[in-house]
Amino acid sequence: MGGTVEHDARCTGEQLEAEGEVAIARLLLADGDLEHSARHLSDALAHDPGLADTYEALSELAARVGGPRRALALFDLDTPYSGTVAGYAHLSAAAGEWDEAVRLLVLVAAQEPDRAWLDVAWLRGPGLAELVSPEVLVGSVLHLASVLPDPVHDDVREALSPLLELLRESVALHRDEARLLWSASTFARRLGAVDEAVEWARRSFEVEPSHEAAVMTGYALRAAGRMDEALRVWQDEAERTPEDLGLHIDISDLLVREGQLERALVWAERAAAADPEHPKAGPAADAVRYRIDGDVRHLLALAGSDLPYAAEELADVSWDSPVLGRAPGQTEATTNSLVQLLERAEPSPDLEVVLTVSAVEPPSAVLALHQAFPKATVVFETVPDPDPRLPKYEVAHAVWVYDDAVARPAVPPPPPEAAEAVRRIASFRWESLPALYDATVVLSAVDPLDLLGTLVHPPATPDTEFGAVMARHAPNLWLSAVQVAACLGVAHHAVDEPWETSRRREILLDLLHGVEDWVNVAAGIALVATAWVVPETWQDVKHHVVTRMVDAVRAGQERQVSILGPLCELVLVTPEADDDFTSLARDVLSTLDG
């Protein structure tokens, strides 16, 4: 029985487990316990589908019972266990039941597409395309494609490449099988074979001008970067089959990618008008409207929808957008110096450097510098007016206190368990504000005072690749991530308390209106995220976020305010913010960008 063509010989844990199962299976086979031997071979396949010894043992089992066809009875398909189904598939191939073999093995691969289920000699063997019916390939490929992202990751592409090779051979044999051609196209596209995907879909349409072939042609052209051609194909097909409102949404999405927002809105609204209950039309229209006018009410409509596509559109709009999808950037001279230092040197506990900055900057900028270079010294030459060291209003919860121009933490370090809780979930990117709010609910049990400690005594970056990148290249972004997570944790404290008299509100407003710092922005993000999820807080949150921006705008008329841009970004996504203030925020951002 054909085993794997190639297998990584490294002794991974999965390989060792599989080898152990094969050894037990052979002992049981020698004792005549065929059923239990088959079970252990199923387990071996599940542990490591690429272990060649497993296939040799399967051949031994088949020989013992009188051939692979009889051995099939030892693998019960009523139990949908991946190893059992794969074992049945391999025995089917050995018995010459090629349709069944391919169908079952692809079913297994669909469950774990990144594993080497398909890397077996019989599937790669020459001539298999002549033995497998196009109908079976169509069903198998469409099922597998339905569970794959578009495009797949590199590891998945490698694991599934044997099926693509089989499809190439089958397409060459069956040039007039229209369904096979467009089905193969959708699979090839996902694996990055976009030129073949275009060719096969177009050939399918030539053979039989079906709706599916036209749609797949558009997808393939889009994947190949041939947007104008894709748009023409889809628009022609939409005129031919106007009842496919999903195609209207695809056209709208393509027009968004091309920056043709007004045209995109026409297609989305056309679909929504034809079927107000369509699962994609309404969310698509709301997303395009936001891209056109920037009105947060469109995003709130997405956030309030139960439709899965609304969450997808909200995430797409939020991606890489300050506040909506990530922590805002920083512009302080201290932060810029940190970035420049890290371009030339590794973080070091011993490097001594002195920075001279013209005026006092947010203390978090200095804290971020000290995360990489603890012995660095920042000398601020002046304290500008209005004084950034003073909160605009009296606050009960302060995290910074100044000694002349030097800030120091006003709260003690958090206990290790609180620091670790924040460390585990902190990220400077998030899918959307509601997703950020939901993800941080795990901090609801952490004492708010301990969360305040993490704002100025941040935990170390995680022991992961992400953490290593943050520590080496962007400790400032890591600090922002920690501060946002901690403030969201405060937002989840004692949510049974009425908002207006709650402790969570009191703390967050103190942080928002405290000394000028990145913490103001983090608290603002927590307040705005709360407002998105808890509408009864809208008016209160709007008042305080707008007030904080206006205070910063006034200060900015006299001196530099590095957090002014982020505060304006906050106002633009605050529910019910008045048009006068959103216009002011846009004007300020335009000036800052200029």
Describe the structure.
The protein has 594 residues and is mostly helical. Among the domains are: 74 residues, no CATH class; 178 residues, no CATH class. The protein is built from 31 helices and four strands. Strands 1-2 form a two-stranded parallel sheet. A two-stranded antiparallel ribbon has the order 3-4. Helix 10 runs antiparallel to helix 11, helix 23 packs across helix 28 and helix 26 packs across helix 28. The longest helix has 20 residues. The N and C termini lie far apart (69 Å).
Tally of DSSP helical segments:
31
Strand share of the residues? under 5%
The 3D shape can be described as: globular
Give the N-terminus to C-terminus distance in angstroms: 69 Å
Which percent bin holds the helix content? 55-70%
Q: If strands are numbered along the chain, what order do they take across the biggest sheet? A: 1-2
Low-pLDDT runs of 5+ residues are: 5-10
Protein name: Tetratricopeptide repeat protein
InterPro entries: TPR-like_helical_dom_sf
Organism: Umezawaea tangerina
